[in-house]
Design brief:
The protein is of the alpha+beta class. It has 12 helices and 11 strands. The chain is extended.
């Protein structure tokens, strides 16, 4: 190391200072190179040293630093460290095999139909769709081999559940409904027919084929499907749902590949075509999906004006009525004969049943931080101990609830709802005293409405 008086920062001559800086930089690079060469020579003689170094120097990424939640689609980082023959790995594999054999998509993989026939997919939009939505639907028709687009009419009888039942009775295997907001596509509802499930995805980062520079032209060949990152139970369900939208036997001579890459629960869609020079050329479109909910059946159709069920009186089993029994048997036979004559129709349910629903902890985190900052600020200005206790107490309750929601443990949503109720009740009497109580009342009411709606949806599905 050079003396202090020869350090570049103490040299007044600019040219000399640059020379010293370049010399020190070159020496540092040479020392680093010699260290790497010595390390490579040592690891060539001892392979165990290299394995030890790679095991200790694991890079910290967003994926492996993320706290695992069983309700997400991304794999547990700790599962990669388990041995393949361990008991826990075998139990997980057996559980996944049992789920796959009994899920709603098993009939697609066990079918004896012609594998070259693509499944029929019906694509439609929300009410009063705009031009960008129709253009995106036109792209989707080109992606799925058996897709067909139909414009959706507005009015009673064209609810999503009734459309799903209509499509199931006519041999369609999937229903895709593209929703829009501010005249831009923002969501996709995918329904597996005839008995569900129904997946709702948020749609972002859309780029049509014409917006991709140097894109390739699509051919009518069936593409090959690549699913990457769908490893958990929820990931298997979503991945197999996408897999059933494509024919089981792709046409490899078309050299087309559709990729669905799951990373941090964001599903990236890409479509490429391999060229004769062994390179990939993107066809399009591009878009990103984020799963928000997964329902058990096809979408429900709510009939708020439906009359209640008629009152029925059940007869005791001990009472014997041979005449009534004979009449009942005749009526049952007639009813069965009429049902056999009439074609079966797929009817939508009257209530949605959620298998999985995304719950956000960000509102609770935000409210917790605001309450703690507000309590400390009020104590610093007025030395009010009640303000400090109330603000910090409600803020800690919000933070605990947010952490419980993020981890998927019990009472997280209930805690956030209770904290919102406490904050709203304490802020309403002081709304007219200033802007701070008014802001607290509005934010607590909004947060309470969000978590109340989430809790109601979960209670209805259970």
């Amino acid at each position: 190391m050079p003396p202090t008086r020869f350090a570049p920062s103490h040299v007044k001559n600019k040219i000399k200072r640059e020379q010293l800086t370049q010399k020190a930089k070159k020496a540092k690079a040479q020392a680093k190179l010699q260290k790497r060469l010595a390390q490579a020579k040592l690891e060539a003689d001892d392979p165990a040293a290299k394995k030890k170094r790679l095991a200790e120097n694991v890079p910290r990424t967003l994926d492996n630093m993320r706290e695992f939640d069983p309700s997400i689609m991304t794999a547990d980082p700790s599962s990669s460290n388990q041995a393949e023959g361990s008991t826990s790995a075998e139990a997980t594999q057996n559980e996944q095999n049992a789920d796959i054999s009994t899920d709603p998509f098993a009939s697609y993989f066990n079918s004896t139909d012609d594998p070259s026939l693509p499944p029929k997919v019906l694509i439609t939009t929300s009410f009063k769709a705009s031009k960008p939505t129709y253009e995106f639907c036109d792209e989707l028709v080109g992606v799925f081999p058996g897709a067909e687009f139909r414009r959706r009419k507005k009015g009673k009888g064209f609810e999503m559940g009734r459309i799903a039942g209509w499509a199931a009775d006519r041999g369609y295997k999937h229903l895709l409904v593209v929703n829009e907001d501010m005249k831009k596509p923002n969501a996709i509802t995918m329904v597996h027919l005839p008995n569900g499930p129904t997946a709702y995805f948020k749609l972002t980062s859309i780029e049509l084929t014409k917006q991709i520079f140097g894109h390739a032209r699509a051919t009518p060949h069936y593409p090959e499907l690549i699913l990457n990152g769908f490893v958990t139970r929820l990931g298997h369900a979503v991945g197999r749902m996408f897999q059933t939208t494509f024919p089981p036997l792709p046409e490899f001579q078309g050299r087309q590949v559709v990729t669905l890459h799951n990373q941090r629960d964001f599903i990236f869609f890409r479509r490429h075509r391999s060229t004769e020079k062994v390179a990939l050329q993107e066809i399009g479109p591009r878009f990103t999906l984020k799963l928000r909910s997964l329902k058990k059946n096809i979408p429900a159709v709510y009939n708020l004006g439906e009359s209640p069920a008629p009152l029925t009186i059940e007869k005791d089993e001990d009472e014997d009525d041979p005449v009534g029994d004979l009449e009942g048997q005749d009526q049952e036979k007639k009813a069965d004969e009429e049902k056999e004559k009439e074609p079966s129709k797929t009817l939508p349910p009257k209530q949605d049943e959620f298998l999985w629903q995304w719950k956000s902890a960000y509102p609770a985190y935000t409210m917790g931080g605001l309450c703690i900052v507000g309590g400390v600020t009020g104590f610093a200005r007025t030395r009010s101990i009640p303000s400090l206790v109330a603000g910090v107490g409600v803020g800690l309750l919000y933070l605990w609830s947010a952490d419980a929601i993020r981890k998927g443990t019990n009472n997280g949503i209930e805690g956030a709802l209770g904290a919102s109720a406490l904050l709203l009740l304490s802020s309403l009497p002081r709304v007219a005293k200033g802007p701070v109580p008014a802001v607290l009342a509005v934010t607590s009411a909004t947060t309470g409405f969000y978590y109340g709606k989430t809790l109601y949806s979960l209670s209805q599905s259970s």
